Amino acid sequence: MPLVLYRFPITPVIDEIRFMDSFSWPRGEDGEFTHGATDIIGHRGEPVVSTTGGNVVVQCRLGNRPIAPGVGNSPNGGNYAVIADYAGYFHYYAHLMAFPSVRPGSVILPGTPIGLLGSTGNAGSPHLHYQIWSPFAEGEGAEDYRSSVFRRRFRNPVNPFPELARLARAQFGVSPTAAGRYHIPPGQFRC
Ligand SMILES: [Zn+2]
């Protein structure tokens, strides 16, 4: 089932946010890992909302083995939440400023607030690390290589950028720069 997102994860109210396709950026000492997510650069405290409907994951598992709670704080992801949508994708929101405002098991809708953009964990500056794993796609993947909690838990990351770019155009009316970067100023939400 193709990935469909319904709401851009940030509606900027404080300052401009920006993003580009950072999915396959190399990470690690020799670039042996790829990023596997889209980073959305913004201002600390911007509201982060769910892109889809679904449920907040109670317990992430590798096979039958419990690995980490679906809402928590990890050394690298910082304050994070994982949401399972109805198509089977898992959505990971990391580096939130404070502990997520959603509870494990809660039913959420597109646009439901999750928390606030921040720089907890291994983030060098405020941004949302938004990553999606698919149970369907083939391939080997990993979260940020430094993540001891999430590495190899979900093996099939999907690039969220095409859907984020579509929503940026549809929801905020913005076009990409020549370099492929999207800038979304505050107060541009369209109903
Ligand atoms: Zn990232």
Structural class based on helices, strands and sheet pairing: mainly beta
The CATH topology turns out to be Glucose Permease (Domain IIA)
Gross morphology is: globular
N- to C-terminal separation? 27 Å
Percent helix: under 10%
Top-tier CATH class: Mainly Beta
3D architecture notes:
The protein has one helix at 161-172; strands at residues 17-19, 26-27, 33-34, 38-41, 47-49, 54-56, 59-62, 65-69, 71-74, 78-85, 90-96, 107-108, 113-116, 127-133, 157-158, 182-184. It has a single domain (17-174), classed as Glucose Permease (Domain IIA) (Distorted Sandwich). It is globular and about 45 Å long. The strands form four sheets. Strands 1, 4, 6, 9, 10, 11, 12, 14, 15 and 16 form a ten-stranded antiparallel beta sheet that branches. Strands 2-3 form a two-stranded antiparallel ribbon. Residues 137-154 have low confidence and may be disordered. It is mainly β. It is built from one helix and 16 strands. Strand 7 (59-62) and strand 8 (65-69) form a beta hairpin. Bound molecules: zinc ion. Zinc ion is lined by residues 35, 37, 39, 129.
